[in-house]
From TrEMBL:
<dbReference type="InterPro" id="IPR008775">
    <property type="entry name" value="Phytyl_CoA_dOase-like"/>
</dbReference>
<protein>
    <recommendedName>
        <fullName>Phytanoyl-CoA dioxygenase</fullName>
    </recommendedName>
</protein>
<dbReference type="Pfam" id="PF05721">
    <property type="entry name" value="PhyH"/>
</dbReference>
Amino acid sequence: MIVNRQQLSQQYEELGYFVIRNYFSEDQIASLRKVVLTFHELWKADNKEFYQEEAFNSSLITGSQYLSIAERTELFDFISSKKIMDVVDAVIPNNPAFMNTQLFFNPVNPQQKDFWHRDCQYDYDVEDQMRVILETQVLHLRVPLFDEPGMEIIPGTHKRWDNEEEYNVRQEVNGKVSHDSLSGGKKIALSAGDLLVFSADMIHRGLYGLDRLALDILIFDSASDYVDYVDDDCLPTQIMLKSIVDPRLFINTLQLKSMACA
């Protein structure tokens, strides 16, 4: 499938997200699923209490703690593949950099609710959140490994601040809680093989249910100050880099880290 970069860029600019249906083949998803499930089972065994009580995601999937060199290399090859890079280049054409990977799954506790948020709210106060959503660029590229309820988003909030309803729910003030419905919500169900790209700082929430297991690749604009969020162990080694066909994402991150240490 050939993507129309201009069309994707325009949709992202306007709405803050886009979906490409059936973007990956069954074989690609099957191979990716095998590696990710290896990580997931080992991570669950190592984080039993956290997983049972409250977890709904994990991170650092490309690290060396749970995966072999061959498995990590397979992930790096997928992240830097032409299909991924075509989409990344459509949204961040200048020096995109790799930040992290996350894995999203259903919480064990059936009473646990999904919740509205902007990713930046966990690092910034309200005043700085208003600034960050206009100045920085962080992408989620979500690859569902099984069919799932997907995401609910508020289109356009990657470029504007919350209205009163959104703010009250997201911040849990004035009698509202973060899992309350929002009138502007748009639900996007996802199937294995789809790709959802969305702004990390738009108002969104994951929807629990079915066999939810989604790999998220996080990419940032090199002009943004996010290199401190990158874990060294989650980057490819120099030997791995030599075998990657298009290693730009990782090279840009390594260069940023080198500059930060200089």
